[in-house]
Amino acid sequence: LPPPQVVSLKPDNLILPPGARATVIGLVSQPRWNGSTCKVVSFDRERRRYTVQMKDESTHLALKLESLRL
Q: What's the pTM value of the predicted model, to 2 decimals?
C-alpha cells in the first residue's frame, strides 16, 4: 500500500456528505447554537449552504461551511 497523502482543498471544492457531524461556530444572528453539535442533512449548491439537524432533532438550520467545525 502506498503511504497516505495529505492534500489541501479549497472550501469551494469540499462538500460534506449527509450524516457528517460538526460543531456550529461563529453565528452572530443565533449565537445560542454556537458550540452545539449538528448533523449534515443536505447541501444546497445554489445557496452554498448546508441544511443541518441540531442535536434536539427538531431544529434545522441552513449554514455556510465557515460556520461548521469538523
A: 0.84
Q: Are 53 and 59 in contact (CB under 8 A)?
A: yes
Residue 28: phi and psi, rounded to 5, are: -100, -40
Exposed e or buried b per residue across 22-49, where buried means at least 16 C-beta atoms within 10 angstroms of its C-beta: bebeebeeeeebeebebebeeeeeeeeb
DSSP state of 58: S
Q: Are 69 and 34 in contact (CB under 8 A)?
A: no
38: cell is 449538528
Total Cβ atoms within 10 A of residue 60: 13
- Average of per-residue pLDDT across 17-41: 97
